[in-house]
Design goal:
about 190 residues, alpha/beta, 12 strands, about 30% helix, about 20% strand, globular, binds ligand FFO, binds adenosine-5'-triphosphate
Length: about 190
Amino acid sequence: MLTKWEVRDEVRARRRMRGAESTARLAGQVRDQLEGLVTRFDARTIACFAATPLEPPTGAFLDWAREHGVRVLLPRAVSATALEWCVDDGTLREHPRLRVPEPAGLADPAGLDRAELVVLPAAAVDRTGARVGWGGGYYDRALEVLRPDLRRRLFALVHDDEVFDALPHEPHDVPVVGIVTPTMYLETHSESR
Ligand SMILES: Nc1nc2c(c(=O)[nH]1)N(C=O)[C@@H](CNc1ccc(C(=O)N[C@@H](CCC(=O)O)C(=O)O)cc1)CN2
Ligand SMILES: Nc1ncnc2c1ncn2[C@@H]1O[C@H](COP(=O)(O)OP(=O)(O)OP(=O)(O)O)[C@@H](O)[C@H]1O
């Protein structure tokens, strides 16, 4: 099996090959998939992320959510290890070091507690729900303290070619229950882990 770092290198290279222009064209499909997820769970408050130009684009979905009264919490890195969460109001700025778009507003002191489901960024995810992030450990730490019912509402959003048959995982990795890509929704078999 590939190591986490080999997986990240491979995915990074594939994302560069795909390029920002082709990636941007996936925004409508991602919106439809995430809209379906929110509707299926009848969620009023969710957590998601503001995508970089190479991640599956979330912008069209965030617009839809704002127009339909769905509150979306977006993460902001506040230290080398911790995230805080802000309700999306459409204003984003780039984190100077991590180069990801982040919300500019006030943090919600309740953090992830109000979320009914969480859509996570990832480098890759496998069919048992093992998720490989970018190695910062930000999400692993945030997920560790989640209430148990929210742990069963974690979804990774990745490109189609980032769904692997098997990926390495460590004890601190929290599995996702579903995978969203621009073209599909897949339930994982995380209960068997
Ligand atoms: N859009 C987004 N926001 C996010 C994350 C993320 O992965 N994506 N994070 C996740 O923890 C947190 C910020 N920490 C991060 C740590 C590492 C990398 C990183 O190494 N990214 C890759 C690939 C990005 C891309 O495909 O554009 C890289 O820079 O090579 C990004 C964010 C919170 N906000
Ligand atoms: N719950 C935790 N508490 C403390 N450290 C942690 C925790 N989870 C992960 N870490 C540390 O964070 C670092 C990155 O972990 P890992 O390689 O699993 O990141 P990742 O899953 O790719 O990142 P992310 O969770 O941000 O998407 C490792 O050094 C790991 O030991």
